[in-house]
Amino acid sequence: MKKNMGTLDRIVRVILAVIFIALAVMKGGAWWILGALGVVFILTSIVGFCPLYVPLGIKTTSEA
User: Fold this and answer.
1) Is 2 helix (H, G, I), strand (E, B) or coil?
2) What pTM does this model have?
3) Residue 51 near residue 22, CB atoms below 8 Å
């Protein structure tokens, strides 16, 4: 599994994940969907690979 996420992409995802999880915890109800998305964002940021990018042909990494 080759990394397809750049540093900026990963940072933005972590920031959004924290916001989404905080909203899910504070508001409850159907907001848990955003919380789940936040968890996915954190996991993909840690790994550096987004499976959705593959079929879309997206890479945010810099090719060295």
Assistant:
1) coil
2) 0.88
3) no
Domain ranges of the chain: 7-49
Measure the CA–CA gap between 63 and 38, rounded to whole angstroms: 27
Q: Which amino acid, one-letter code, is at 44? A: T
Query: Which residues are within 8 A (CB) of 16 and not within 5 positions of it... i.e. 6 or more apart?
Result: 38, 41
Check pLDDT > 60 for residue 45: yes
CA distances from 19 to 4, 25, 34, 40, 52 (A): 23, 10, 9, 13, 21
User: How many helices, marked H, and strands, marked E, lie in the chain?
Assistant: 3, 0
Please give the C-alpha separations between residue 57 and each of 16, 18, 28, 30, in angstroms, as whole numbers.
23, 27, 35, 32
Is residue 45 within 8 Å of residue 28, measured between CB atoms? Answer: no
